[in-house]
Amino acid sequence: MKKQLLLILFFALHTAMYAQFQPQAPLSGHHAVHKDDTLIKAWATGAVFEPGWIQITDTTLGRVSSGNISNVLGKAGFNLISMGDGGVITFTFDAPIVNAEGPDFLVFENGFLKQDDSTLAFLELAFVEVSSNGIDFVRFPATCHIPDTAQQDNFSFTYAEHVNNLAGKYIMNWGTPFDLEELKGAPNLDINKITHVRIIDVIGILDDSLGSRDKDGRLINDPFPTPFPSSGFDINAVGVLHNADGTQNIPIRNLRLRIYPNPAMATLQVENDGYPENAAIVIFNAQGQLVHREDYKTGIAIDIRHLTPGSYIIRIQNEHHVYQTRFHKL
Q1: Hey, what CATH topology would domain 252-329 get?
Q2: To 5 degrees, how large is the angle CA 105–CA 106–CA 112?
Q3: For residue 225, is the peptide bond before it cis, meaning its omega torsion is within 30 degrees of 0?
């Protein structure tokens, strides 16, 4: 009986030691964000890709050749770029990413759940770095507690609880979040003006000279080898939760703007206390894209029949003020 209790205690402690982060999506307690969530304001609009090796231990196989830049710009979907061993891709945006409450941007990959166990998934991992000048990059401190007793391969599944601050933690359609607050005080970095996000494929081989390591010096056990043109981290997209859209330093007032009906199908009536001079009405979709603009006058009725169903942000704005609220198009 004592032996059984000791074994139970050992495995409980072992689990607590290594399963310390958030679980896989969509399990309770995960912190991923789905690609269709209206929290996402924008998506990456540019990228530069440096392909990695198909297999770093046999460079005669050459570099990866699966996917192109257009696959990974805009909203996350089915298209991607396979990065190869040690591959690097650097994303740019129409407006800088800024530090705000909670996570500030997301990285999407194409991992998938184990068919008979939704707590496990096939994951490929990558480091994430950011820059506010395109020259100096700072890496998010990554932690990996995936056991290193056996090399992960193309048939291995992983607990998301073992991974933190590595892109690829979550399965396809669920973005792994990154919070710029964690990098506050880093030299040569303005966390309120992030212009570049860099993704670097983890070389997952359990080899002291070749393998990638987490912030504590542990080798990161990632599927290896994957000797195909589509090897390595499969980048899908980068989504933005908080950005500088040109009005971030202007006070945003929600209470003074009234719209009705809400939800609306064809016409949206807009009223505001106090007529702002030289103002415009602008409407943004869930991806942060401008979908409508017209000059403002109080009591205006906006034709929204051209908008697709979904959630939108509407603003009345001039160079001094922004009045903002949300509405839903049926």
Answers
A1: Immunoglobulin-like (2.60.40)
A2: 175
A3: yes
261 upstream amide cis, omega within 30 of 0: yes
Q: Identify the CA nearest to 177 among candidates 49, 46, 39.
A: 39
Tens of pLDDT, residues 126-151: 999 999 999 999 999 999 999 999 99
Integer Cα distance of 194 and 130 in angstroms: 7
Which value, to the nearest 10 degrees, does the dihedral of the CA atoms of residues 98, 101, 105, 109 take?
A: 170
Domain ranges of the chain: 2-240, 252-329
Q: How far apart are CA 267 and CA 24, in angstroms?
A: 41
Q: Is 127 helix (H, G, I), strand (E, B) or coil?
A: strand
**Nearest Cα residue to 111 out of 51, 47, 32:** 32
Which burial class, exposed, middle or buried, applies to 76 when counting CB atoms under 10 A from its CB (0-12, 13-18, 19+)?
buried
- Inter-residue contact 155 to 58 (CB < 8 Å): no
pTM value? 0.71
How large is the average pLDDT for residues 3-24? Answer: 56
- Model confidence at 327, in pLDDT bands (50, 70, 90)? confident
